[in-house]
Amino acid sequence: MPKKRSRKKQLPETPVKVTIESLAHDGRGVTHVDGKVIFIDEALPGEEVEFIYTDSRKDYAEGKVSTLFTRAADRVDPECAHFGVCGGCSFQHVESSAQIRIKQELLNDQFKRIGKVEIPELWQPLEGPHWGYRRKARMGVKYVAKKNRVLVGFRERRHPYLAEIDSCIVMHPIVGTKLLALGDMISGLTIRDKIPQIEVAIGDEQCVLSIRVLEPPTATDQEQMRTFGHEHNMSLCLQSKGPDTIVPLDGEPEIIPTYALPDQNLEFKFKPAMFTQVNYEINRQMINRVLETLNLNQNDTVLDLFCGLGNFTLPMAKFAGRVVGIEGDQPLVNHAKENARHNGITNVEFYAADLSKDLSDQPWANQKYNKIMLDPSRAGASEVLQHFKKWQPEQIVYVSCNPSTLARDAGILVNELGYKLVKAGVMNMFPQTGHVESMALFVK
Fold first, then answer.
1. Average pLDDT for residues 413-438, to the nearest whole number?
2. Residues 343, 291 within the same domain
3. What is the C-alpha to C-alpha distance for residues 45 and 30, in angstroms, rounded to an integer?
4. Could you tell me the strand order of the sheet in which 371-374 lies?
5. pLDDT digits over 168-202, tens only?
């Protein structure tokens, strides 16, 4: 049988000299060669570079810098030795205040281009620590037989392989400085090649690592994990299937991580795989801004959509007459109710509902709310916005982790539903990465 020829197109090998024209939303430099758009890793607007192709498609190509001829004023030397190989960060070569400016410009651009809406006033960006801030993560684990070692960390940039890293300086140091030690411990287990990932959940005081196991560990394996956990002040758990199968090691107590909102005198409990904000400092500032903006009092009835475990619901309930939280995930709703009880808050109700579906048969959806808070996933909230005609809120605060879906939804609120955009701005929830967290205020 003749060998099948590979259909993969041969990439040009000669470096190409270009000037970078602009920045893409993920932090890559943008230029054109023969009319085709090229996205180039670690290149900044105005820089003259030589790049080599890493991929080529019908309507765009990708590349990486091979020679930097001129250096943009915003460029800095990355602090992490693994930057460029590890895919966890894409912005370390950009000075910190410039990262925020770029994200703000991106937000402005998306509102104009996608939503056909101008931002009349910008909020001051919310800023916190630039390093060691990340408290939630899913890390990959891979036993490499040739090297007889276990890699723990994140995938290589634009590759499915795990990067060979020994630390992560955006991760909270209790875990970020222990990647090698974790890999060494796992490489001593009988199931070292049956562990694909670790779910990291770090509370204010507690650190829980949920280790996904494709085969049960032996008693000796568990003993090694237990010793490691005690030595490094971590609770190691086992996860055999989905998130609800996370259990402590035999004989170990279940550790429930918590985070506090000192300004509101609240404490939240959460299970390791549950969604919580990764950056506690920004989360606190963000909640304060929401409360300040909505200026709640006892006459307010507030609807909190995509409420999670009550991160915004409970602080708002401290000031409003009544708050109703809606979330698609039933375990999160149960946990939100538990957090309300834990904090002695009685003027809240939580319901599970798929907010992308018809809600007309839901009793809570047939009531009036004068203020609405929403914090959807990356997909945004376009389906649920149609219900705003019925609810007629005077004020809407929208928190978003995706500026393009926020811009699209802003267009619906302003151009279809008659709301006015008052303010918007970014929050530096994910420094050193291209992720843009933002907030917008709409009024009737």
1. 97
2. yes
3. 8
4. 348-352, 322-327, 301-305, 371-374, 395-400, 437-443, 420-427
5. 999 999 999 999 999 999 999 999 999 999 999 99
CATH code of the domain in which 20 resides = 2.40.50.140
User: What CATH number does the domain containing 431 carry?
Assistant: 3.40.50.150
Catalytic residues: 401
Asked if residue 397 is part of any domain, the answer here is yes
Model confidence pLDDT, tens digit, residues 336-373: 999 999 999 999 999 999 999 999 999 999 999 999 99
According to DSSP, the residues that pair with 126 across neighbouring strands are 427
Instruction: Extract long-range pairs of 267-271: CB within 8 Å, 24+ residues apart.
Output: 267/342, 267/343, 268/309, 268/310, 268/311, 268/314, 268/339, 269/335, 269/338, 269/339, 269/342, 270/201, 270/203, 270/309, 270/335, 271/201, 271/243, 271/246, 271/331, 271/335
Same domain, 405 and 285: yes
Number of domains the chain is built from = 3
Whether the Cβ atoms of residue 309 and residue 252 lie closer than 8 Å to each other: no
Produce one character per residue of 39-60: b if its CB has 16 or more CB atoms within 10 Å, e if not: bbbbbbebbebebbbbebeeee
Q: Which domain-ending residue is among 203, 229, 248? A: 248
Whole-angstrom distance, CA of residue 348 vs CA of residue 351: 10
Nearest residue to 51 via CA among 35, 72, 32, 73: 32
Query: Nearest CA to 418 among 408, 410, 426, 428?
Result: 410
**CA–CA separation, 178 vs 157, rounded Å?**
21
Cβ contacts of residue 340 below 8 Å, gap of 6+? 310, 313, 314, 317, 346, 348, 350
CA separation for the pair 5, 227 (Å, rounded): 53
| Global model pTM greater than 0.90 | yes
Claim to verify: residue 216 and residue 300 sit in the same structural domain: no
- Distance (Å, rounded) from C-alpha 236 to C-alpha 344? 31
Backbone angles phi, psi at 164, to 5 degrees: -90, 95
Residues 220, 340 share a domain: no
Candidates 285, 276, 261, 313; CA nearest to 426 is 285
Q: Do 406 and 110 meet the contact criterion of CB atoms below 8 Å apart?
A: yes
Question: Residue 48: which domain range?
Answer: 1-75
440 has which bridge partners? 398, 424
